[in-house]
Amino acid sequence: MTTGAWIFVVVIALLVGMVAGFFISRKYMVKYFEENPPISEEMIRTMMAQMGQKPSAKRVRQISQSMRGATKKRK
């Protein structure tokens, strides 16, 4: 095999590896964030209390749902 052919094979293998790695890592991170949201309902309650708002269960669920919906829209 000539030197040019080796360089071509290495470049193609590198590109295929990069593309495959990107999609595998993206799928892993989406699954991780679905299972472990970055903010929980307890955190929302704490933040609302710190801002001087009375955290009702309905409002906390609304905020939590809106945050989950925002992450799903980005997919």
From TrEMBL:
Keyword Oxidoreductase in record: no
Pfam families given in the database record: UPF0154
GO CC, any one term: plasma membrane
Localization: Cell membrane; Membrane
UniProt keyword annotations, A-Z: Cell membrane, Membrane, Transmembrane, Transmembrane helix
Region (Disordered): 52-75
Transmembrane regions listed in the UniProt entry: 6-24
Membrane topology note: Single-pass membrane protein
Keyword Ribosomal protein: no
Matches recorded under InterPro entries: UPF0154
Family the entry assigns: Belongs to the UPF0154 family.
Protein name: UPF0154 protein OW157_00490
Species for this entry: Aerococcus kribbianus
